[in-house]
Specification:
This is Spore germination protein. Keywords: Membrane, Transmembrane, Transmembrane helix. By secondary structure, this protein is an alpha+beta fold. It has three domains: 88 residues, no CATH class; 115 residues, no CATH class; 167 residues, no CATH class. Helix content is 44%, strand content 13%. A five-stranded antiparallel beta sheet has the order 1-2-4-5-3, with helices on both faces. The protein has a five-stranded antiparallel beta sheet with strand order 6-7-9-10-8, with helices on both faces. Strands 11-12 form a two-stranded antiparallel sheet. Helix 10 crosses helix 12. The mean pLDDT is 87.
Amino acid sequence: MSSDFIQYEEDTNQVKCWISYIRTLVDVQTLQQTILPVLKSDKWKTLEELKRGIPIENIIITIDTDVIREKLLDGFILISLSRYGLPSALIKATINKARDVSLPEVEFSVVGPKEAFVESIESNINLIRKRIISDKLRIVELKVGDLSSTKLAVLYIEGICDEQNVQTVIQRIEDIQFDQISDSSFISQIIADKTTSPFPQLLDTERPDRVSSILAEGKIGIIVDGSPHVLIGPTTLVEFFSAFDDYFYNWIAASFIRLIRLFAVSFSLLITPIYVAVLTYHYELIPSDLLGTLVSSRRGVPLPPILEAIFLELVIELLREAGARLPTKVGQTIGIVGGIVLGTASVEAGLTSNILLIFVALAALASFTTPIYAMGNTIRMLRFPYILFAQWLGLLGVVLCFCFMLAHLLMLTSLGRPFLEPIYPPRTIDMKDAFIRLPFSFMSKRPQQLRTKKTTRFSSIKSKKNKDIDE
């Protein structure tokens, strides 16, 4: 028997009872201040009378040993009239220890709300309930993990969300065969349509405002107890490059920033492979004025372009990983000092050219513009296959690698919905919030790929007719 399992006999004024609980899961103050005074009173003789006398809502009387075992592990106090007697009363006295709501760390924004999810599932649901004050918000609670019995909640809005999507999510979660679930990333990997894909197929976010907005579109949220990130699905590729800040700015500025972000991701993915391809096979593509600069920068470099590029890319990844694993202040120092020292030393030692160093540094900087961290990791990893294909076939190899990636994206789905939508299948109406963001007056329809029950968000005709009172 576990050392934190407490069981003792309590003498009351009327009857004797046995109290059992797990000390590390129970709030002792609730036991001493709320339950024991009622037990020692003469106002009860049966468990039903005890249930009516204790001012706690969640009290269960049962003879099911499986329920008793489950509730004891969930922070309930067991009261029975004999040591091994049934039925027994289960009183909820769970101790709640969780950090306070803090600022977003991964998806920080200059404007907009400054709240982020925490590790408590109840607190996270509360943050969403505050933003969606509707009786249509549905929450389905489940448990996963043979050992952990992790609490999980599936959120959707009834009357808007497609029931097929809801049933797909619930079925996949119920079919999970895994002993320990400690974070939402476990769920994202297990229920993904294609687990061998490097692309994340469920969007994870730490912002309650983003989750509430996406739920209103007709999507589904998955909250896992112990995780400060909420999963959203079904999702599309373009959503991973859209920050929620885009909706806080004027649509022209937001569209410009979104295009800059897409260009930065493309630059981060292709600039190093193009450098390797051009210097290996396509010297004739280099302008004569630039050719002299490239030749002088590579003078004395003994490595071919492919080894030079892989060396610098690995150095950048090592610095990034070291900065992420070390304490915050030390990690920032290592990243800055290490980048300057290693970059300068590698150029002076003749291991790399200064032009490639600039390209790799810009590519690393551009990769940080990806709003979703999981997609940023994918972009970082994809650069290496592109570099190898560039060394193999030059620019043709870069195009071939892009075709392989595009074919993979065309086959990829998120909860059964096309991952590349609205590019393929082409849906013009969903382009209003893809590469650019049009004004809110153009967003009267929900995304077509979600197959929502209520496709219209508001009347576009009435919104255009509304005038100011002085007009």
